[in-house]
Amino acid sequence: MSESARVAPRTRGTVPGPALIGLGLVTNFFDTLGVGSYATTTIVLKLGRMTADELIPGTMNVGHLIPVLLQAILFLSVIEVELTTLVSMIIAGGLGAWFGAGVVVRWPRRTVQRGMAIALLFTAAVITLRQMGIFPQGGDAIGLAGIALVVAVLSNALFGALVSLGIGNYAPCMAVIYSLGMSPRVAFPIMAGSAALMMPVAAFRFWKSGRLDRRIAVGLTLGGIPGVLIATYLVKELPVTYLLWLVVVVLLYTSVTLWASSKLSAPVAA
């Protein structure tokens, strides 16, 4: 059976139920507070066996797109960031996403599973280092110049490519911003602004290829919009230390599960 024939049946239907809308609300609520949405969404979709593993990256890039655009608008309207830093990092992230998605959409099921497994391990490691206070806590700068700017731009290009595998850019981007002495506050518009360009670029390629579950993507979008608004205007700040440790544990379990599943997947030509 060809790859397109195997994927197509899983993409039928566009009417999500309350559970999928709730998933979009919860994941984007915590995404707005800085937890990230890709790791938590991957955990639920994989462990709940809600769609094929190879459809998860595309489903998340399309489904979380509009909520992330809303986040970017809200953060950029209230938090000042030096323009050169902001624009250069956003463009770099978009370019990385374009090339990364162009590669991932051609990968067979086994390769996607193993790529996601490695990406989840990376995410778990970054969150753990952040939780343990090993990463610097940031400074008060609202912009970068010289070598620091080059490092930030190249890093964001890499994070854009990783978005295509379903690894969110929030945790690694925050780590780089802090380590370069920027204010923790400006991390949010940079992260959201970068994601707002990375995701449309990646989403377009996934949508064009058909490598997504449209019903789940619609549910993430419908729930994600109110999730962002609730987090922004009602909650604003919430202690998430224990939640992040739980996310790390489940990320490790999900990574192992994906790798084990990849061993059962027959190699498929890209």
Describe the secondary structure blueprint for this structure:
Layout: H1 3-7, H2 18-32, H3 38-47, H4 56-63, H5 65-78, H6 83-104, H7 109-131, H8 146-163, H9 170-179, H10 187-209, H11 214-235, H12 241-264
Helix pairs in contact: 2-11, 3-12, 4-10, 4-11, 5-10, 5-11, 6-8, 6-10, 7-12, 8-9, 8-10, 9-10
For the sheet with most strands, the description reads: none
Number of helical stretches of at least 4 residues: 12
Written as H for each helix and E for each strand, in order along the chain, the element string is: HHHHHHHHHHHH
The value of Rg in angstroms is 17 Å
Oligomer: single chain
Helix content: over 70%
| Helix-and-strand structural type | mainly alpha
N-end to C-end Cα span: 13 Å
The tally of strands reads: 0
Morphology call: globular
Tell me the strand percentage band.
under 5%
The count of domains is: 1
Low-confidence stretches: 1-11
pLDDT averaged over residues: 80
Descriptive notes:
The protein is globular and about 50 Å long. The chain has helices at 3-7, 18-32, 38-47, 56-63, 65-78, 83-104, 109-131, 146-163, 170-179, 187-209, 214-235, 241-264. It has 270 residues and is mainly α. Helix 4 (56-63) crosses helix 10 (187-209), helix 6 (83-104) packs parallel to helix 10 (187-209) and helix 9 packs antiparallel against helix 10 (187-209).
